[in-house]
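Hey team,

Sharing the Type IV pili twitching motility protein PilT run so nobody has to redo it. Sequence (356 residues) first:
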Amino acid sequence: MDYKQKLNDLLLAAARQNASDLHLAAGRHPTLRIDGVLIPLQKELLVTSEVSEGLMFAMLTPEQKETLLAEKEIDFSYSFEDKARFRVNIFHQRGYLAAALRLISAQIKTVEELNLPSVLHDFCKLSQGFVLVVGPAGHGKSTTLAAMIDEINHSRTDHIITIEDPIEYIFTQDKSIVSQREVKSDTLNFHKGLESLLRQDPDVIMIGEMRDKESMATAMTAAETGHLVFSTLHTNSASQTIDRIIDSFPVEQQGQISSQLAATLVGIVSERLIPKIDGGRVPACEIMLTNPAVRNLIRERKSYQIDLVIETSVQEGMMTLNRSLVYLLKKKEISLENAELYSLSPSELRILLERS
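Structure output:
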């Protein structure tokens, strides 16, 4: 079998069917994720362990192959024929190779095209501060970040530096200089890249994902010293995000971190992609902006009260996830079943729906 050709056929099928992901694993048909649902390609043969290995190795350079065999897994980006680009993770399961490939659109969509709240434009106008996009894996965090970074690229004369593992969206430089650094190919590791960030004269910094307290500390320090910093975190809400950041540090540092976070954080967007009634997915967002009340709650470690501030600050541009879901329900874009499934408080959602 020509593994390279078979791989390209599968990647092309994923792109043509507008899949978000392609899964390859021994003992299964190649499988696409479309609008959040896994759909096996039944016309394709079952992937054997030999075919699985052949398809994986067709994507890897000799150096990457060495890394995979030594470390048992690898993250990288893969392009083919300028038709599509994928973020790939190859891993071992039960002794066999498997892969998850995330399709990355060549076109970076705008905030409007993504149906995101217009308040995100305000984040793009800031000269400094810390902005976080949070939510579960596969719910559009990277796409939302890319929309904001590209808006800055087209509207401001800044130096934008990204540190990603791997690079996802590729920015075409416009008014800004965009320096995209990929872990392993452009910097030895995440920590090394973060250490040298502030010596590279950035105005805007995008950290693909905050993985540990070192990356969180770097992000806050950069925001504190006059930079605009964007990043993502796998959390479910604004209040949970604040707790996650503070709790990542030793107890003796948490008071200082709370003060630093209160001083630098300007907003958190918590995002879910909800299946639409007529196909496709639409974002529902919780929006938290750090007004004086929120800053005090962060300093005093009372993040459990932040939900109430968001609920009562709609006029300032804040939005609870439930209000966002109700808005989509009233527009008849999503079903009540899916709204309740993605809500963090379905009972409160039903009360809101009755009142509106």
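The chain has two domains: 3-104, 120-355.

Ping me if you want the raw files.
A.
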